[in-house]
Structure formats: C-alpha cells, structure tokens
Structure to design on (545 residues):
C-alpha cells in the first residue's frame, strides 16, 4: 500500500491496536464526527433523569458524570507509520449516597429507561454496601453552581488538524534525525479530548471541554566499533493545550547551553540537537562517584517532584487507604499535626493547583463539582497540607474540598487523584548561568530517565537524559551514568537556590497510574532550575566481561 493511500484510510479514523497505557477503551470513530459535541441541554435532561431516579429510591446525594472521551494516537518509526488510532467512548456514571454509603453504576445506553435503571442500581449497591459500614461518609459542604461551563483555552484543536499533517510532522522529525546520523528514531503524538458534564442534587450543571496533548520521541545511535549505544528522549512536555504547542515560537525558548522550550515546542530542532548530543553521550566519560552540587533543570526535576512530593502528599496514601502503583507515605498525619515538620529548606514552597494555564491538571471543576483553585502543601519548607476530596476534607479540618477528585472515564468511579504539584520559583533574580558560575563541583542534569523510589516515597534515586560536569564555575563536558541518591527529606533540605520565574516550566505525567482496577490521570509539575548541595551520586555505567 502506498503511504498516501494508508494515510487516507487511517485518516478516516479506523482504530488499530492501541499503544500500551493509552486510555482509549471505546469504539473506533470516523474523524469528522469528533468535531460535534453533544448539546448541553440534552445532557442536562439525561442527568435529571438519573438524579430524580436516585432520589426516588432513597439517595440523600447523587452526582452524574456524562462523558464523551476522544483519544487519538499516532506513532512512527524511521520512514514508516506504525499506527494511527482514533477512538470514542460515551456514557454516564452515577454515584450516590444512601444509608451513609457510596454506590456507583454506569451505562453506555443513553435512553431514559437505561439511565434510570443505572441510577436505581447505584442506590441498591450503596444500601448493600452500608451493611458493612463502620461510619457514614462525611461530605464537605458544596454549593451548587447552576449551569456553568469551562473550556481549555486552546488556539488550535488537535482533532481538527488533518491526520496527514500530523503524520508529516512526525516523519519530518524522523528524517532530520536520520540525516543527522541517528541509527533509529521512534515518535508518538497523543491527543485527548474529554467532553465532561457533571450534575448533582446540589444544583450544579457543569459542562467542560478539556484538551491534552503530548508529542514525544526516542533517538538511538549505535557505535559500530564497540557495539555500544546511547539514547536521548525528547525534552517536550505533555500539556493541557491544543496543537499550537507544536508551532515553534522563539519567544517561548530559553537559550542556555542548548535551547529549552516553554509554552511552544520545536520538535525538529529538538531532534536535530538531540542527535548531535548522542555523539557526545557515546564519547562521554563515566561520572566519578561522590558528592556533587546538583543543578536540576525542570525537565528532570519535575519527575522528582511527582514521586517524592506529589504521591506522598495524597491523603489516601497517608491514611493507608491506597497503596497501588505508588505505595503509601512517610508523611503521616502526626508530622502535619506538629506544624513544624521540616520537609525541605526554607527555599522550598510547593503548591497544589488545578488552574495553571497549559497544565495537564487544569480544569474549572473537578469530578465532584468542586471549583478548582490553589493551596500550599509545603510552606517555607514545612509540611502544611495534603491533597483531599469532599469525603476526606473533615479529616484535615477543612471546610471544603481542594478539588482533587477525578475518574479516567464515565465508567470509572471518581476518587482522589493528584493535582498539579509545583515548586514555586525563587523571588530574587537568578538564572541557571549564575548558578553554574557559583558551583565548584557539580552536575547539570536534563530530562527524565530511569528512577526508583521505595513504597513510602522516602528513599530514591533518579538519573537523567543529559548530564554535564561543572568544575570551578565552568561546564567541562558531558558525563554518563550519573544517578543521584537521597531520601526525600534530606534532598529537599539540601535545596540551596531556585531560579526566578522567567525560568519556570512544567513537565508532567500523561499516564499516571493509581488504584485497583487501575485508572490513569494526567498531571503537571512546574518548577525553575534548582540547586541541591552535596547530593550523593553513583555511577551506573558497567562493563561486562
């Protein structure tokens, strides 16, 4: 089959086997149908059918989530298109409180009888569950908002961009890599649109249109003489934006030892630079183990924030209710209650939010109808709060939820999920170049790579895509095999400096897993380049034989 014929057929949206981890349960969907959302008035009528049916059977509270989830993925390798898939999932999830206990049911049959039947089933499940109840659910108060809406402020809907144009971009990037000397390149473009409608017996009818996008690639170069190889992944970020993220803009670059991207991404440039860096990696010397001052770029530090701050401050993990995918937490309630647990240095201020423009977690309202905002988690280095939902707020003495409830689809029950968790920039003017000048023995690290962390989110190690050695205020060259080790508290207490707001960028996790049955969510972590003093570094490069 010729490439143009293949693009035509797949451009019609016929789904193929989906990439692992991509939440696309649903039906293959023609490309043109994704551009027509369901009218809000129709969704309100369906929601009222469910709410009325639930109340008639004894529910003291009910909420309804009507979801239309659109997913598209494109993957290529070298000169070939590997896969193009588009899928749609549409249905309704109904959650109720009856006899002080939760019940949940879902349906993809959207006629009145099926909706009412699902609502009745949810109430029956709640009443049956209540037989095992030790104490009733306590919901934080939440006012109804009436009929409101919220949309991701995109400039270009990725689903409106022709599939051919998206494929051409990925193949153009591959061509740049191969011409520049890469042995292999694979890349992916993930796009998600959540058309979500929430309604509750408290009087909220919330219509939201949420967009996320993630372009990514992996470069590989082999050394024919030694049989060795090196890889370099993209330094893009998954974003809560439209296709405009993939339109390069010089104003959205940070010029350092090589360009780094903020709210716009130049894939072709990143591929070209990354391919050249592979040659450096092949020739780089192994790092000498020891203590180093680390300068961590946001493309690296975001993952350390996610694993060592985001997960251990999820309240359900703190309470021991949740342990799947990321363990429990060393940040127990007694540490918070003391009001003096020194999580980090006084430079460390970390906030939770679901409102940062362009972030993966940005929404107007969470999946409990709570209007989203921002709050302190770590203030001047001290643990001051966690992440909570409506039925957890009373445990912390909060008068309202923090808006941390999410379900990956209409057919999954919503539960506590991580918001954006971000390290705040320094207040004094400071650029990475100044950090380098003030570093006698250090490492400058970019990009996420392999890592491990224990089941209480305490002991960890992280590596990077790129690592440069610093001696006497100068970058002396690239090194490889550098992995930093620490425990969470000593690491964050070693934070001695944070660059200012002009360097602030977001990374994130597009497929963050949690729960059983498992669900994925998307969450961003912002920070500026940060310095950590005298952190232990090991060399993971080994020679066999």
């Amino acid at each position: 089959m010729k490439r143009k014929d293949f693009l035509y057929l797949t451009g019609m949206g016929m789904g193929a086997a989906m990439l692992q981890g991509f939440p696309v349960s649903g039906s293959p969907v023609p490309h043109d149908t994704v551009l027509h959302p369901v009218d809000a008035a129709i969704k309100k009528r369906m929601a009222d059918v469910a709410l009325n049916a639930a109340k008639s059977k004894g529910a003291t509270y009910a909420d309804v989530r009507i979801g239309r989830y659109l997913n598209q993925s494109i993957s290529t390798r070298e000169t070939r298109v590997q896969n193009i898939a588009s899928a749609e999932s549409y249905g309704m999830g109904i959650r109720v409180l009856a006899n002080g206990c939760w019940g949940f049911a879902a349906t993809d049959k959207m006629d009145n009888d099926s909706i009412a039947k699902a609502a009745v089933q949810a109430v029956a499940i709640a009443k049956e569950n209540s037989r095992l109840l030790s104490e009733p659910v306590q919901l934080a108060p939440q006012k109804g908002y009436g009929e409101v809406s919220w949309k991701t402020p995109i400039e270009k809907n990725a689903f409106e961009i022709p599939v051919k144009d998206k494929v051409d971009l990925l193949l153009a990037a591959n061509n740049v890599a191969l011409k520049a000397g890469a042995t292999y390149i694979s890349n992916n473009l993930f796009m998600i649109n959540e058309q979500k409608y929430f309604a509750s017996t408290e009087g909220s009818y919330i219509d939201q249109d949420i967009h996320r996008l993630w372009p990514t690639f992996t470069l590989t170069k082999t050394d024919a003489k030694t049989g060795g190889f090196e890889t370099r992944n993209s330094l893009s970020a998954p974003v809560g934006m439209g296709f405009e993220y993939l339109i390069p803009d010089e104003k959205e670059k940070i010029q350092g030892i090589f360009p780094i991207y903020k709210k716009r991404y130049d894939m072709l440039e990143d591929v070209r630079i990354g391919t050249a860096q592979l040659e450096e990696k092949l020739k780089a010397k192994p790092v000498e183990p020891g203590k180093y001052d680390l300068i961590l770029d946001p493309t690296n530090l975001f993952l350390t924030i996610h694993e060592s701050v985001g997960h251990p401050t999820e309240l359900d993990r703190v309470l021991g209710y949740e342990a799947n995918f990321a363990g429990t937490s060393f940040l127990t309630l007694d540490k918070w209650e003391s009001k003096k647990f020194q999580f980090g240095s006084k430079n460390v201020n970390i906030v939770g939010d679901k409102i940062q423009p362009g972030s993966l977690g940005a929404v107007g309202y969470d999946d409990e109808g709570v209007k989203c905002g921002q709050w302190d988690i770590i203030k001047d280095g001290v643990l001051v709060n966690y992440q909570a939902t409506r039925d957890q707020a009373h445990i912390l003495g909060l008068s309202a939820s923090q808006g941390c409830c999410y379900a990956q689809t209409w057919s999954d029950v919503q539960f506590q999920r991580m918001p954006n968790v971000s390290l705040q920039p320094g207040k004094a003017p400071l650029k990475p170049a100044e950090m380098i000048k003030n570093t006698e023995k250090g490492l400058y690290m970019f990009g996420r790579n392999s890592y491990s962390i224990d089941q209480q989110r305490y002991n960890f190690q992280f590596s990077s895509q790129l690592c440069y050695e610093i001696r006497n205020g100068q970058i002396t060259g690239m090194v490889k095999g550098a992995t930093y080790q620490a425990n969470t508290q000593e690491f964050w207490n070693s934070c001695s400096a944070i660059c200012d707001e002009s360097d602030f960028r977001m990374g994130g996790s597009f497929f963050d897993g949690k729960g059983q049955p498992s669900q994925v969510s998307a969450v961003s972590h912002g920070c500026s380049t940060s310095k950590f003093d005298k952190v232990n570094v090991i060399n993971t490069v080994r020679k066999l034989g």
Summary: The first helix runs from residue 3 to 11.
